[in-house]
Specification:
Aspartate Aminotransferase, domain 1, 14 strands, alpha/beta, Aspartate Aminotransferase, domain 2, binds 4'-deoxy-4'-aminopyridoxal-5'-phosphate, about 375 residues, 4-stranded mixed β-sheet, 7-stranded mixed β-sheet, 2 domains
Length: about 375
């Protein structure tokens, strides 16, 4: 063991002592809306496969066809030899879906956020960033060097107060929000945010990871039809069933990212199989209003049941429905009890969520039936 290994050992011992040890466990696909773990099929309330597309034959089929035609890998980064016609056509299709001038593919949503932010800030050194307290960890990875002001979750009066009092001398100001918050399942008021951004001459960046495919007309996200949003990102890894992400906005924005975004320039272009799956999902998603309505009805059924059983669902209005528990150990115990009853509902605890707000994050899918919600509510029982 060298001295670095000793440090690792010590750091891991601290994680264990804090009760925050995490490890990887395998799970395999089961029937729709189900997952197999330790040889048992469980109803899956923890995956983000909101429309049940992850195993759709059109996605898997097109992924295979494009790999067979174009190869398993794209061979180089986008600016060298990695760009195929398929990348450009898909980016045009994403821009049309999002109603923007242009779009760029990224390897993942995490990478898109972590890489696009520093690139944006490089265009305006010293820019001030105003972010909702609950924005995703990937933003913080890109904001290490930024002047950041965090406003209370979804509290637009607080945002306005900060905009009026902080960073007024900054060369530019950037507001960061999600359209649907990943752990609370509530929404931002994007029309009001666009108005605030316009009045304060700020740039508005919206993460649509959990709205893309699910909300807005034809699943185009909550940004659809709202003028004044400067940059939208989203992932193909959740409702769209596969992998990868996009950043969409003006041609100027995308030109800048192609020229300045390290996480776009210095990484290998997304491979053909991934492009094929995304292309197929973009064909299917606009046609899935029935599935979206079913999903919304399931979420409503769950929220009504949770409220009747004494659980706070933290203002959720989407397919992500938290059941607040509070203490970490209680959330873990409840999750374990549900697993015994045949349900996978992961406990989410600090540091992912604030201390004292450990919860079950119940992620619904159009592959679920009303009966699955009833089984879940019965297993949860009345809040202790
Ligand atoms: N943004 C948000 C709000 C997310 O919840 C996630 C995924 N957990 C990401 C970005 C990252 O997306 P991906 O999984 O595609 O890396």
């Amino acid at each position: 063991m060298n001295s670095f290994d000793e440090r690792l050992e010590h750091a891991l011992a601290k994680v264990r002592a804090r009760g925050q040890w995490r490890s990887l466990r395998a799970a395999e696909p089961g029937a729709p809306g189900r997952i197999v773990r330790d040889g048992r099929e469980l109803i899956d309330f923890s995956s983000n496969d909101y429309l049940g597309l992850a195993r759709h034959p059109l996605l898997a089929g097109r992924a295979g066809e494009w790999a067979a035609r174009l190869g398993a890998g794209s061979g180089a980064s986008r600016l060298v030899t990695g760009t195929r016609e398929a990348h450009l056509a898909l980016e045009a299709k994403i821009a049309a879906f999002k109603g923007t001038e242009a779009a760029l593919l990224f390897a993942s949503g995490w990478q898109a956020n972590a890489a696009a932010l520093p690139a944006l800030l490089a265009a305006a050194p010293g820019a001030a960033v105003f972010s909702d307290r609950l924005v995703h960890a990937s933003f913080h990875a890109g904001l290490a060097a930024a002047r950041q002001h965090r406003f209370r979750h979804n509290d637009l009066a607080h945002l306005e107060q900060l905009l009026d009092s902080r960073g007024r001398d900054a060369p530019a100001r950037l507001i960061l929000v999600e359209s649907v918050y990943s752990m609370d399942g509530d929404r931002a008021d994007l029309a009001a945010l666009a108005d605030i951004a316009r009045r304060r001459d700020a740039f508005l960046f919206v993460d649509e990871a959990h709205a893309t495919g699910v909300l807005g007309p034809q699943g185009k996200g909550l940004s659809a039809g709202i003028a004044g949003i400067d940059c939208v990102m989203g992932t193909f890894s959740k409702a769209l069933g596969s992998f990868g992400a996009y950043v969409a906005g003006s041609r100027r924005l995308c030109d800048w990212l192609v020229n300045a975004c390290s996480g776009f320039i210095f990484t290998t272009a997304p491979p053909p199989a991934v492009l094929g799956a995304i292309d197929a999902a973009l064909d299917l998603v606009p046609t899935m209003d029935t599935e979206r309505a079913h999903l919304a009805a399931l979420a409503e059924r769950l929220r009504t049941g949770l409220a009747a059983q004494g659980y706070d669902s933290l203002g959720s209005t989407t397919q992500i429905v938290p059941a607040l528990v509070g203490a970490e150990d209680d959330a873990l115990a409840l999750s374990a009890r549900l697993a015994e009853a045949g349900l996978l509902a992961a406990a989410i605890r600090p540091p992912t969520v604030p201390a004292g707000t450990s919860r079950l994050r119940l992620a619904l899918s159009a592959a679920h039936g009303a009966g699955d919600i009833d089984v879940l509510l019965a297993a949860l029982g009345t809040r202790a």
